[in-house]
Design brief:
By secondary structure, the chain is mainly alpha-helical. The chain has 6 helices and no strands. The termini are far apart.
Length: about 150
Amino acid sequence: MQNQTDQIKHVSDIIKVMNGGIEFYQEAKSKLDNSTYQAFFNRMIVAKKEAVADLQKFAVEEQGELENESSSLVKARQVYTKLLSKVSGDSTAFTYIDQLEEVEDKVLEELDLALERHQAQDCEIALRRIKVSMKECHDEMKALQKMAAQHSS
């Protein structure tokens, strides 16, 4: 029989992507002063912070410590978006929203990877609950992306 440490897999990677997403949303908030975006980004940040808090105990079981790093893939998107928004100032909102929607896709992808693996029961329950919340974030971001695309064209 495996012990619980062996059964928790991929949670630290999810936290890294979410931490990167939180940083990215905070940056987007500082760059876009539209109150609609601010409220939306705040909801995304809170949802991700709550998910990270829920997952940290599993990260400790997985790797022996809290996960405080951010995903290098998300950081690369953040840098790319900064550069792109400097080049095309008119579509800054769409640029940020488009890349943030990609981050939401990545969060769901990482959750699916973790759920494909055998997890400790309490971890799997937490992952499934968080996936529902992150799917809502993704769907909201997708709707915002469509709205932004209409405004930028």
